[in-house]
Amino acid sequence: MISRVTQQTVQKSTLANLQLNLSRMSDLQGRLSGGKLITKPSDDPGGTASALQLRASQRAAEQVARNVDNGIGWLGTVDSALQTSLDSLRRARDLTVQGANGSMSAQARDAIAVEIEGIRSAMLSEANTSFLGRSVFAGTSNTGVAFAPDYTHQGAPGSSVERRISSDATVRVDVDGSAVYGQGPWDPVTATGSVFGLLDQIAADLRAGLPISDHIAHLDTRRDSMLGELGAVGSRYGRLETVQQGVQKTIMDLKGQVSAIEDIDLAETMVELQSQEVAYQAALGATARVLQPSLLDFLR
């Protein structure tokens, strides 16, 4: 059976095809101007789902990167404070050895005592070092300083500042100030207390003309504690640096995967748009011929 084709049928079909060509060209122009292959979920449901999953992973990796950067800042501050404190403690030990010489004059001993007190003040300042407004030797305490003027440790007992570096791992980024510097005034009977109190005791004994050679071993004990904490800080710092390098690579890889799904191939899209423009111009020509006859043409 032969279908009846009228002029109206041809016109409708031609206009529908013209509209389809125009829609395709509009889509290509939108992709080219926006640079995105997927402008709405219906463009590629599977690709949209994959892109959403990749973006979620990317956000998690970026959060880890921020945690690591913050942790490195904490540990870098701790490391600097410990290094400076160790230098001060070594100087204090040298002065104590010098002051243990029983033949020194009272004036010389007093001069050494003054310098030791200066070292004590400098070490106390280092012990109260903060990073972004938080004391690095006071755990989760918000007191602002790790040690009060009486050398009492202000940190929250048993607390620590952690930074998450993966879904199941964290790294400690602070140090227990009481473990590094001790706490409280120096007790000569039990030989316990803070390094600040110990330095005060050495200065007082120097002025009183008392022997101070026994204090050298106490300074060595506190130095060993500082060195142990410094080694632990260095280990954690190195771990964070390793994680930092890995997470930066992960972020770049994820960005590349998202781009491969969402972004257009510029050269390919331009060629496709040019081809579509040619097709649209041809469709316009065909439509002009179809729509050309009028009532006057038939009356002729």
TrEMBL record:
Q: Name one GO cellular component term.
A: bacterial-type flagellum hook
Q: Which GO terms describe its biological process?
A: bacterial-type flagellum-dependent cell motility
Q: Which residues cross the membrane?
A: none
Which SUPFAM superfamilies does the annotation name?
Answer: Phase 1 flagellin
Report the principal subcellular site: other
Which UniProt keywords are present, listed alphabetically?
Bacterial flagellum, Cell projection, Cilium, Flagellum
Please report the stretch or stretches of sequence annotated as the Flagellin C-terminal domain: 229-299
UniProt KW Plastid keyword: no
Taxonomically, the superkingdom here is: Bacteria
Subcellular compartments: Bacterial flagellum
Pfam families in the cross-refs: Flagellin_C, Flagellin_N
Q: What InterPro entries is this protein classified in? A: Flagell_FlgL, Flagellin, Flagellin_C, Flagellin_N
**Any keyword Secreted?**
no
Q: Which GO terms describe its molecular function?
A: structural molecule activity
All copies of domain Flagellin N-terminal, residue ranges: 7-140
The UniProt entry's sequence similarity note says: Belongs to the bacterial flagellin family.
Q: What is this protein called?
A: Flagellar hook-associated protein FlgL
Species whose genome carries this gene: Actinotalea soli
What gene is behind this protein?
flgL
